[in-house]
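Prompt: For my understanding, could you write out one protein's sequence and backbone structure tokens?
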Amino acid sequence: MSLLQIISILTFFNVLLKCVSVYIFCLCIMYSVYSNSQNLCCTCGVPIPPNPANMCVACLRTQVDISEGIPKQVTVHFCKQCERYLQPPGTWVQCALESRELMALCLKKIKSSMTKVRLIDASFLWTEPHSKRIKMKLTIQKEVMNGAILQQVFVVEFVIQSQMCDDCHRVEAKDFWKAVVQVRQKTVHKKTFYYLEQLILKHKLHQNALNIKEIHEGIDFYYGSKQHAQKMVDFLQCTAPCRSKTSQRLISHDIHSNTYNYKSTFSVEIVPVCKDSVVCLSPRLAQSLGNMGQVCVCIRVTSTIHLIDPNTLQIAEVDGNTYWRNPFNGLCNPRQLEEFIVMDIDIIRDQKLGAGAGMRSNKHTLAEVWVQKTSEMDSNQQYYCRTFLGHLLNIGDLVLGFDFANSNINDEYLNKMNPHHVPDVVLIKKSYDRSRRIKRRNWKLQELAREGDGMDTDDERQYQDFLEDLEEDEALRKNVNIFRDASKIPVESDTDDDGAPRVSLTEMLEELSLTDATGGEGADMMTD
């Protein structure tokens, strides 16, 4: 054989060997693929588990983007004043950073664009608290080509934009209100207002008020909604005998949406009777209250007017509806109180009442008293009267009362009474040294933050009278929060004990001082 034939034969066997090797390699690959239940990717040929698209994940992602249509940057509105987030359309909610509430709010912002995908997981990515950015990593799934399910992870960035909420806007405007409650009492003394102030503070009804203004004969409460004003009116009607009227004024009108913008005004009038007022009832009202005397003393004003007859110790309660049907006014104001000294006193043990008489007071004692004005000690003029203070008075004690004998009183029912039935003096309460009481008073009350001219001399005197009433009336103190005054250290001595009533330590509360969780004043959560 020639050399050329030998070379051709060797070349043939070499090609044949390569073909056999390729064939064996293909058989091995096919065997491995079918033995592991895998397919080849139709694009890149990589062995993959069988799927309806016959494509690997990398090739499938190059063909389909399941996060398409979902915004990668969203705006979230935040109020820096109250640190609340806007939840469309008009609700503001309190959310802490990286909280469940904040995650729910953010997901609601992109909920409409995720209707065709399935949310698998969501988590926050750390960002600087002052960066005004919130990043959230989302994991979603979606069915793509021929029923194949593709899962994808991506990041959505929420940009925090400052916007003042409606409530803070009204507070900053100071004159933007939708309802006002005008509380009025046509009387000289403000004891009822001081009592209502403590009830409002105790029940925290002042928190919704935009502004509180103190004016002549009353106080105004401004609110951002009519519902809050109506709540205040309902509270006043439950705590004080009063009547109310409502009016509204049209501010604007939208003819397209048929919406109206009103400003509402609630006028609340409290009965013109305060504690320690002397009143003269109509004969009809006195008869309906158990045939009690017409001249009575108001010992307390709560949801009703508590009256006592100084001649018989009969007590009665007059509610608001009864008062407005049979109105009566105070005969004297507290400025006309005069100081008397007790010259003699006799306790009346057995007092027989007539038929149809009402209840008698068990907390008071009926007594006959002869008193003399401290301003007329150089004369022998004495006055005789009956009083309900027999359990407190002794010979030589000082007592405050009204002098009817030397007063010119213009009252419809008093002028029609028999002059023999009108007492010369009506005693109201026992008198103590005010300077000593102020010196050893180690408690205080909270006050509403309101606009006004401040307390003048007369207002300060009336406020001290109210504090003394709290010390003397335990039933009145139950509705008031009394706080211990740590700044005052009372000085006790045997000579200062004049028998004046006091507030016990068990009735006092510790004044709380709430600070930020950081231990100081803290800082805003989001700043520019």
